[in-house]
Amino acid sequence: MVEIYIRRRFFKWHKDNYRNFSWRDTRDSYKIIIAEFMLHRTKAGQVERVYKDFIKKYPDIESLAGADPIEVNKVTEKLGLHWRGHHFTDAAIFINDNFKGRIPDSRVKLLAIPGVGEYIAGAILTIVFNKKEWVVDTNIARFLDRFYGLHLNGEIRRKREIIEASKRLYHTTRSEHLTFALLDFSSLVCKPIKPVCNACIIKIKCNYWNQYHHHTSRMRSNERGKIYTLKGSERAHNGLKGLKEKLKQRLDKDTVPIWKIENKTSTYRAKKPIAITIFKDNSLFFAENENLDVFGYGETQGKAILDLKLHILHFYKYYRKLYKDDVVGHALRMKEIYKDLLIKE
User: Fold this and answer.
1) How far apart are CA 321 and CA 79, in angstroms?
2) How far is 328 from 326, CA to CA, in rounded Å?
3) Strand partners of residue 261
4) What residue spans in the chain does CATH classification 1.10.340.30 cover?
5) Whole-model pTM?
6) Rounded CA gap, 242 and 231, in Å?
7) Which residues contact 236 (CB under 8 A, 6 or more apart)?
8) Where is average pLDDT lowest: 33-42, 130-139, 178-187, 239-248?
9) Phi/psi class of residue 149: alpha, beta or left (left: φ > 0; alpha: ψ in -120 to 50)?
10) Please, which residues have CB within 8 angstroms of residue 327's CB and are 6 or more apart in sequence?
């Protein structure tokens, strides 16, 4: 159940990396659909002012349905795509005529609205109605393709493998939060060109990282050649920090020490006991150490501890390879923690 791992990491990462836009402060289905129309092939920063002006002029379905398309287009053409204006009036009229002015909460009905595709339908269902529905746009598809190592070509957002992966990921009661986290993560970290893999908080499980970066000890910035984290969010990257809220089933947590870590070829001894917190969430066990910024999971407590040990050993080797002069911020702090953690027997 790697999807549980992804969601946990994303939710905690997103607390410090949430991008605040006007349309994210509402769950009004009308405002959400307007924002999604505007965001089509347009960066969020460009949409902000136009969105505010549009909502001020056309505050609801009724006002938009009765508007002159030419006047609507005068507002939307500021986004650079002149053909977009008719989407708004066509959709508003259709919703008024077929759904009594209310935006529906089913994918089939949403897809009948002019201008609404699978992504907008999924976004409305998760953001407005918090349903366990899948969401895929170009950015989310890229993340899923990389993480699962699907190696798909063409317009991958429509591929069956991507949709199935999204469905598994969205098996959560927090689909609204997951959509925003996915969109922000794919924009800030899992970029189309030069993804910031060193700042990725799920890279240990990512096929893309393990295939292309696992043996690379340095990820250079453009100017200084230093390993870096995203500005303003060092506390969140590469792991779980703070744990600001307790998990529902964490009342059963237990703490145990580990002294020894073994792999197929070597045995390592900890200089001092490493305290591991064990807890259960639904059918899975989780083992974590907040200071080392790592956790593992498994179907049994033993498997969770084993998974955690392998992660600790991986990061021990990884951070020891890095040159101190080539790391800053969070990476530097983690190097200092890991450098003398273990002794090879």
Assistant:
1) 47
2) 7
3) 268
4) 2-188
5) 0.65
6) 18
7) 12, 13, 15, 16, 17, 201
8) 239-248
9) left
10) 226, 227, 335
| Beta-bridge partners for 327 | 227
Is 2-188 CATH 1.10.3720.10? Answer: no
pLDDT, tens digit, 9 for 90 and up, residues 204-255: 889 998 877 544 433 333 333 343 333 333 333 333 333 334 333 443 557 7
To 10 degrees, what angle do helices 175-188 and 138-148 make?
80
Radius of gyration of the chain (CA): 23
